[in-house]
Fold this protein.
Amino acid sequence: MDGAAGRGAYRCGCGWRAHALDQKPAVRRCSFGDCRTVAVTPEPLRFCADHEKAAASKLGPLAGALEVELYLNSSASTRYRRFGDAIHRPAKISRHRPVVYYMQRVDGGLIKIGTSTRLRERSRELDAKVLAAEPGSKPEEGRRHRQFERLHDHDEWFRPGDDLMAHVAEVVERYGRPVLI
């Protein structure tokens, strides 16, 4: 230390000159818009606490939830509590988390209430239009079947009654129109 390499520097056995042992690392600033508040997210992303959620909602559809999760270093429950549905799976992946879907036959007839992790493929298989989708798997699908059992026609197909159509509208309002990837 403080030898021929200069103050605060040293040379290792190979002769490489290293500096900045006593220097503090530069303060990382938020890179969201014009904000220059101290960043709280790990490298390479630099966002302050105020812009972390906005950045996740913009980066989620582009980079995918899995990549954003790595940078935000938080558990699934923390992410959901903090970001809600702002982070979505990347568009390249055809499988997604299980959803309870509401599909109507092309002729405008019966509505199928089912569950799938491949909504686009399921829509093609049934030759039906996806009206709505909500997070859930078999137990949630069973609850929906019991909820609308008075409209049951056969298998998982239901008549489009007022209460079913109102529920479909609520699902669309809450979760948005399903995007078929």
Observations:
- Residues 152 and 158 are 4 Å apart (CA to CA).
- The chain has a mean pLDDT of 75.
